[in-house]
Amino acid sequence: MRGGRDTNVRWWTWAGYRANATLAATLTxxxxxxQRPTDxxxxxxxxxxxxxWRKVISEAADQLCLPAVDARALNGLKFSAALLTRLAxxxxxxRLADLDGATAALRGPTRFTVLxx
Length: 117
What we know:
- The protein is built from five helices and two strands.
- The radius of gyration is 16 Å and the shape is elongated.
- The chain is mainly alpha-helical.
- Helix 1 (17-26) crosses helix 5 (99-107).
- The longest helix is centred in the last third of the chain and has 12 residues, at 85-96.
- The chain starts with 9 loop residues before the first strand and ends in a 10-residue tail after the last helix.
- The chain has a two-stranded antiparallel ribbon.
C-alpha cells in the first residue's frame, strides 16, 4: 500500500478483479469514488491515514458488500426483460463478487509505504 502526500494511493492486493471489486464496494469510506478496481490494486483516497485504514479494515471482513453492477451488464443478461431489475442486479453482483478472495486480502498483512521521501 502507498500512502502519504502522493495523490496516487493504491492498495496492491494482487487478489484479482473480482476480489478487488468486492473490496472496493466494501471499503467505500477509503476508496476513491471514481476508481475502477483492477486485477492488481484498488485506488484509495489520497488522505487515508494508517489509523483510519486499520480501523476500517478490522471491521470489513465481517461486512463484505457485493460489487455494483453496470447497467450495460444488466441489459446483456439473458432473459433480462423477464427479470425484476433488483433480481437481475443481485444475480450479477453475486457472480461478480469474490468473497473468499476479498476476505483473504483483508486478513493478510499490509503496510503503508511512502515513496520518494
